[in-house]
Every structure is written in structure tokens, then in C-alpha cells.
Write a structure and sequence with these properties.
alpha/beta, single chain, Rossmann fold, 209 residues, two-stranded antiparallel sheet, seven-stranded mixed β-sheet
Length: 209
């Protein structure tokens, strides 16, 4: 297991150790901070992952965005093509069910693809992040393939528990650093230019790239 594998194993174990009550409490603080970001307030179309396995809970964010009249898209995983399709969500959680690898996504009859270029802000999942915005995903590379397809002014924000912040993640050419990280304790704005314009194929079978 390499250095990134060790970080992934350690952080996932720490996240699993959180109680459901801790996950909910911390997620509530994180979502409140994210909803107050000027980039979120200005966004008309938001794409957000749907949480599973003790990720930061995004359900309240989706509910708030829909109530505010924003267009909300969620990712549909196309495993064979190794890509994400943004799908417009109208009713939550009624339209959602476990999909690829158990990750929540729209039921087939509610899949409504929208153009990637219409997205103003992407809520990005991850295992670990560093203060420079570098992101360690689950190994599938799905988001590192997807994010470069968005507009130049699209804002990439990662909700994360403070325990997911590490000193340094070794970035590779195909990696996409995020523009902002929101934890229950702080907001990190690396201000780092975009990267990740040509990701290499990945053999992992995780849907959380």
C-alpha cells in the first residue's frame, strides 16, 4: 500500500469511528457554512453528491437549495464509461434510491441529464484534503475526469470533517484541486489555479472518484 493508500485507510477508519450523532452535528455546521458562501448564494445551478458511508451529509443542502429555487443536479454514475452524468433533481428524497455501488442517485425514471456547462457550483466528495486544495478521492477518478469539463468560472467546493484535513497530499497531473474546503471549524480557500485536464484510466471500482 502506497502513501496515498495509507492516508485513505487512516481517514476512512477515523470517519467510520464517528457516531451517527457526531456526523449529523458536524454536517449541520458544515452545510450552514457552505450555504453562506457568496459563490453558493450566486449559483443558479448546483451539483451536489448524495452522501453515503458517513460522508458529510448533503441532504440538508439539497433541501435548502431546492427551497431557494436553485436548480439542483446530482451525479449518476456510468460505471462502464467511467463517467458522471449530472441529472436534474426536482423532488428529494422521493426521486432517489441506492444506485451504482449503493451510492444514492436518481431512480432510472427520474434521470434528467443537463449540460455540464450549465453548472455554476459543484459540491465535491473526497476522502482527504490538504490546505492547498489537493484532494484524495476514493480511487475511481470519476471527479477528476468530470471537473475539467465544467466552465472556467465553475466553483468547486468540498465539504469535509476537520479530521479529513491532512498536512499534504501529493498531487498528480490528473488531480483536480478544489477551490474551497468547508469543515465544521473553518473555511479554507487555497486560491489555486485549475489542474487535472487529462486523467489517466483507473482500475479502481469505486464510484467516488
Amino acid at each position: 500500500m502506497g502513501f496515498k493508500g495509507e492516508i485513505r485507510k487512516r481517514i476512512l477508519a477515523a470517519r467510520r469511528a464517528l457516531t451517527p450523532e457526531e456526523v449529523t452535528e458536524k454536517s449541520t455546521h458544515i452545510v450552514a457554512r457552505l450555504l453562506d458562501l457568496p459563490e453558493y448564494r450566486a449559483a443558479r445551478t448546483v451539483m451536489a453528491y448524495l452522501d453515503f458511508r458517513r460522508e458529510v451529509q448533503t441532504g440538508p443542502l439539497v433541501v435548502a437549495a431546492l427551497a431557494q429555487g436553485k436548480r439542483v443536479a446530482v451525479p449518476v454514475t456510468q460505471a462502464a464509461a467511467r463517467r458522471l452524468i449530472p441529472s436534474l433533481l426536482i423532488r428529494y428524497p422521493e426521486e432517489v434510491a441506492p444506485g451504482t455501488w449503493g451510492i444514492p442517485e436518481p431512480r432510472p425514471e427520474y434521470v434528467r441529464p443537463i449540460p455540464v456547462k450549465e453548472i455554476d457550483l459543484v459540491v465535491v466528495p473526497g476522502v482527504a484534503f490538504d490546505p492547498a486544495g489537493n484532494r484524495l478521492g476514493y480511487g475511481g477518478g470519476f471527479y477528476d475526469r468530470f471537473l475539467p469539463l465544467t466552465r472556467e468560472d465553475c466553483f468547486w467546493v468540498a465539504p469535509a470533517f476537520e479530521l479529513q484535513i491532512v498536512d499534504r497530499i501529493e498531487a498528480e497531473p490528473c488531480d483536480c484541486p478544489v477551490h474551497c474546503i468547508v469543515t465544521e471549524e473553518r473555511i479554507l480557500r487555497p486560491g489555486r489555479p485549475r489542474a487535472g485536464r487529462g486523467c489517466r484510466p483507473c482500475k479502481s471500482h469505486s464510484g467516488r472518484g
